[in-house]
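User: Predict the complex.
Assistant: Input components as received:
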Amino acid sequence: MSVGRRQLGPLYVTPAALLVLGLFVLPMVLTVWMSLNDWSLFGVRRFIGFDNYSDLASDSQFADALRFTALFTVLSTAITTFAGLGLALLVRSGRRGAGLLRASYFLPVAIGLATASFLWIWMYNPQVGPLGPILGFLGIGDGNIVFLGSTSGALWSVVATTVWKSVGFAMLVFLVGLQAIPRELDEAARVDGASRRDLLRHITLPLLRPTFGLVVVLLTTQNFLVFDQFFLMTRGGPESSTVSAVYHVYNSAFVNFRLGYAAALALVLLVVLLIVNVVQMRWIRTDATGADAGKAA
Amino acid sequence: MVVSRRVLAACVAVLLCSVVAAGCGGSDSGSDGSGDSAPAQITFWGRAANEAINRRLVEAYNATHRTKVRFTAFPDDQFVTRVGTAAASGDLPDVVAVDSVYMPQFISQGLMQDVTERADALPYRDTLSRGQVDVSTSDGRLYALPRDVDASTLFWNRDLFERAGLDPARPPTSFAEIKRDAEAITALGGDTKGFYFAGRCAGCNAYTLLPLVWASGGEVLADDGGPAFETPQMTAALELYRDLWTDGDVAQSARTDGGENWLTGFAAGKVGIQMLGGFAIQQLREQNPRLDFGVARIPGQDGGEAAFSGGDVIGIPAGAENADAAWEFISWTLSDETQVDVVARAGGLVARTDLIDNRFSSRDPQVLANNGALEVGQVPKSIVYNQLFNDPNGPFLGAFTRAVFRGDVSGALSGAQSRGSEIFESAG
């Protein structure tokens, strides 16, 4: 019986292992191999060692794309995180209508990224889009704003779309985090005479720290790999100033047909993202222990 | 109501097509076992933009021939990638129709069969659209024939010309006249503007601005296929666009138009002059049946005329199993009957100069004028054409944006030249 179970164990794991092998490990190995070759879409392939990686060092467009992506990631992640927390605090109560608000804030998450991008292209359209006239009515601009015309305009417009698209997700994670906070803590503090703001500052926020970490890491990863919005909404323009890192990989592979070089770019991107994530995790963990230490003292 | 009927009609058409296709597939497997050398079926790949006309051709061919052609369309921006991966795995079809600007790259990679001898035997060999034959020729050998042809041309709105006090029968024939006429139309006021272009659409602008350079006597590529941006003719063309933009002769939305609204303003009768192409004629008529427009050749700085020969060329990939049957289909697409009864009947441009004046086009002055522009048509021949001119992040659109919207023409062109040279060298 126990032998049978021992034999069954690996059998149960096999489907998952095969999936990981086929969908992650093998493509990864192939990507590494491609990155060591002069791999054009057409014609012969040739092993060139680390030449793709040395080309990469002098690729000023990749450096620009990385810088731009970092800026976009910081902006979108920060705004989405705080907006998500704010919304979660707002819709936490069981008041009438809270459920409806929760659902409507979450709705954009359920829309495809391409669909959302096209929706916002029309929102920003200077001729037929409603945003320009609305802002004009509020006294901002003359009602005829070319949102995607300048670099900063395009950046902020895409940040707004991205925040709109993912803030519902951040809100949901924060709601779960809020629910995990024991009610007794709040009640005890209130008995001790803590105000609403004290509750938020000294109980809710510190206890939400792991949730913060989760939201920030997930959003950073998602925003760092941004592609669809810029591909569809700005096409990297004006003057290639809004080309994200993944967009640059796409251009290398499918415009210039340098698949090997694109593979090298993708791997470098993976390493950069891993480093960022590791640093974030560390920071969250040390912060948490620091807080614990403070409490102990 | 009208819309819903149109949608319904489209659904029915799609349904019919799929039924027909399924029917063909079914009959193929059973018949043709008679020992005849002709294959039961050949495969044909094309891009989505030309799917409708290619399907019409295939239907007409299949109705009258033993060998059936099976057509597959791929999205335009994935087509070349798709062919590349198929070439790597040996899965290329028997016939491929590709945007003519990619043909030099296909030839240089040995993807296409040499069809020089086969083509020389055609009675209509010398009447084939010149630009597309040129771009499919390498070292004197021919690798593909014209399939879908188009030429970029200058469109002008006759009503607006009349209202602005201009001669509605006389389109501009120089840069100065384009500017002068556009100014007169902008002066009508309201949201009527003299000129339009899609500022963020690389392909649209290459298609319509490069002829301005050629007509002025300039070139856009060096003899080896490398970029040649820094020419007086390119400078003059961009200065014309910059002046039109700066003086308010172009709607603000041009700045962010990635091609989605390329026809919108002209179709609505709000644009006086715009460089478009034959493809726009039917679309404009559908969108606004009352629009009164003329079609003329694109002028140079001080006269002259030129056109970009757009469209597809059709050929046989290297290693195709059914080359003879493929050739039979290709040569049939260019025969008198097919060109007139299938292509011209559908309002398309014919690929042969001897058929330009046919019983359909003779009743259609706009199509006739557009088709005639093929006589001055060119296709830029470079293995990096796509990277230089079609890429929205490539040097051409970068230079266009910087020159037109920021006014820095010479800086834009020298920047594009150095970036273009890098691209050309890394590809060579």
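The two ends of chain B are 56 Å apart (CA to CA).
Let me know if you want any component modeled separately.
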